[in-house]
Amino acid sequence: MNNIIEKLKSSRLAKSIIRHGNPDNDLDRSLLMNNNFFLHLHPVKINKHGLKFNYTFGLGGISFFLFLILVITGGLLMFYYIPSTEKAYKSVLDIVYTVPYGRIIRNMHRWAAQGMVVAVLLHMCRVFFTGSFKEPREFNWVIGVFLFVLTLGLSFTGYLLPWDQLAFWAITVGSDMAKGVPIIGEEVRFLLLGGNIVDQNALIRFYTLHVFILPALAVILMFVHFWRVRKDGGISSPKNTYINSSVNTEKESQKKTYTLMTAPKNLKITYGTDKEPDELVMTYPNLLIMEIIAGVIVFLLLLLMSVYFNAPLEELANPLKTPNPAKSPWYFIALQEIVSHTTAFWGGFFIPAAAIIILMAVPYIKPDHNGVGVWFARERKKELIVFASALGLAILLTIIGQYFRGPGWSFVLPF
Amino acid sequence: MKINLNNLKKVKIESVFLLSVVFLVFSLIYFLVFIFDFQTDWANYQESYKDISSRMAKTDQEKELINQFEVNIKQIHIKELNKTDRCISCHVSIDEEKFKNIKQPLTSHPGEYLKNHPIEKFGCTICHGGLGMATTTESAHGAAEEEGSLYPMLGGVFIQSSCGKCHAENSYKETSVIGKGKRLFDLYGCNVCHKLYKSGGTAGPDLTKIGAKKYYDVSWGSEYHGDKNISEWLVNHFENPSYYYESKMMDFKMNNENATALAVYMLSLVPEEIPTEYVVKKKENISEVIK
């Protein structure tokens, strides 16, 4: 038996796939990272601080893992789903009731999508609360904000596809908020829906955005995002501080040719060297094992949830019958709540646009290096309070809109 | 979760061990999903249908037919009515009279209804309601939702409201309740306040599509917390208009029987487009109806 395994291991086929020996020593462990695709995601050695689960909670990785699940389940759903107002709803019923495992795959897609919105939001909070967006990671934070907006866009466009009452009216309400854009509001909505009402044109537009354009954009930005994490010195940590010595490195860089293994510029800790060995550990097995475990746990929870909880599916969309109240998807409900108190300009345009611009500008407003790599650092008290109260307000508005709003958007108790 | 990194290094988890753990977890999940999702009720019912029929079969020809029977999702698709009914996936022997003493869901259809309404032409949900495309009992019978059903099945006398979709007058003894409801509509003068089709008052809501209302279209007040069933709502509302909430409607002091008859008639007022070949024209004797 052992002989056969040994023979298999030394065969040309195996050698062409696995280009390193058994990863039981540090050399082979580095080769495992170095000679494989993993080097695109992780360096050979990583910072011990970034490995602490209660520092990152694995939120970025979980977001990416949920995205992968969404791509796979979404691809499977595409075999059966028909983006036509006549057939969309029936094809969803067919998926749920006749396709083997169709119900579970649809549920997984739905819950993973909701989970991804939550995971991405929490990931953003983690990055803010630990000050990880500060130099040299400012631009990666901006890309992250784009990815957050794309995640919402992906979820919103997917919302319409089942073509049931919930989908139809959530999108009608959601796209109505686009009217808040000054001067060209009507045109923006027209562009989004391909008409003045939510109909076949809107369905095919949302479908194309949902299955091709937005995922493609998200994938491209994700690659840049991950690449930048690696180039900016991995997960942030208090010891991994930024030193402003660009002049020296400029000179040095002219003399030396760097490889993929090169340490990120301007960082005290250089990777692949033995300058501070205590701070660095091998990526394999330490990080890869944690990633696999996290993936298995997320997948397990998602699957069990999909077995027991069905994704909502109401009756066929009926443009003549407005549910009262008609609510937008939950992640836009805070905006709907604002619209109900003010005008579409504030809730549909000004506040979301301002929020996105401010979020992107955050690293540039106050360019310091206070409290990087520490949860709720004392010296960042002010910015933390501002961010936390804005977040708290959004959560409060969402809860009010979701649970305390009845017919005519009047205040009701949820039970 | 705290991982001691030094320990982890010492233990040196072999990739083989790791892979086998992952493999085990995944196979366990897959096994669970398999149990929950693959063991469908309709397949079990069709198996027992096969058993019972083969016991009932007398001639070789019949036995041969049963052997050829395949277990799969069965459906009736009726283009004219825009319906796909999969009810016969469980009620597989609905049109076989010899199954009339077998318990549900294999019982054959009671009465002679299927003779005039062949299931190939009518399907099931046009009369019985429910969600025809569903293949689980709860969803098909409209019991899957917690609060109220989006696709409720019509039970008891309420099924007569479906007769009213095609039959203009109702003097058959099987449709006496909806016939009574129609007469009561005129007797109470509902038309004075409510619009029906093109004529009627505007004091109350338009009743032209009242039968299409779902449980969430009507007000249940703040006191009521039970199952929300639209036919039950109508009956209670007619008996006492302010049963659920303070209503402006006149109280006619109807008894339960009259309220039910009226509710059955209301439920027949649906905007469903019935093809002309399905509509049965007036042929009943009017004098017979008034009795």
Describe the structure.
The complex is a heterodimer of chains A (415) and B (291). Chain A is an all-alpha fold. Chain A has one domain (51-235, 285-409): Up-down Bundle (Cytochrome Bc1 Complex, Chain C). Chain A is 61% helix and 1% strand. Chain A has 16 helices and 2 strands. In chain A, strands 1-2 form a two-stranded antiparallel sheet. In chain A, helix 8 packs antiparallel against helix 15 (344-365). The longest helix of chain A has 32 residues, at 200-231. Chain A is globular. Mean pLDDT of chain A is 84; it is low at 244-248 and 269-275. Chain B has 291 residues and is mainly alpha-helical. Chain B has 2 domains: 41-140, no CATH class; 156-290, Cytochrome Bc1 Complex, Chain D, domain 2 (Orthogonal Bundle), CATH 1.10.760. In chain B, 40% of the residues lie in helices and 3% in strands. Chain B is built from 13 helices and 4 strands. In chain B, the strands form 2 sheets. Chain B has a two-stranded antiparallel ribbon. In chain B, strands 3-4 form a two-stranded antiparallel ribbon. The longest helix of chain B has 24 residues, at 15-38. The N and C termini of chain B lie far apart (80 Å). Chain A binds chain B through residues 23-24, 48, 51-54, 90, 93-94, 96-98, 100-101, 103-104, 281-282, 285-286, 289-290, 292, 296, 299-300, 303-304, 307, 310, 314-315, 321, 323, and chain B through 1-3, 5, 8-9, 12-15, 18, 22, 25-26, 29, 32-33, 36-38, 73, 84, 86, 131, 133-136, 139, 144, 150-151, 214, 216-217.
Reading the helices and strands of chain B in chain order gives HHHHEEHHHHHHEEHHH
**Roughly how many Å apart are the termini of chain B?**
80 Å
Count of individual domains of chain A: 1
- Which range does the strand content of chain B fall in? under 5%
Order of helices and strands of chain A: HHHEHHHHHHHHHEHHHH
Q: How does the helix and strand content of chain A classify structurally?
A: mainly alpha
Quaternary form: heterodimer
Share of helical residues of chain A: 55-70%
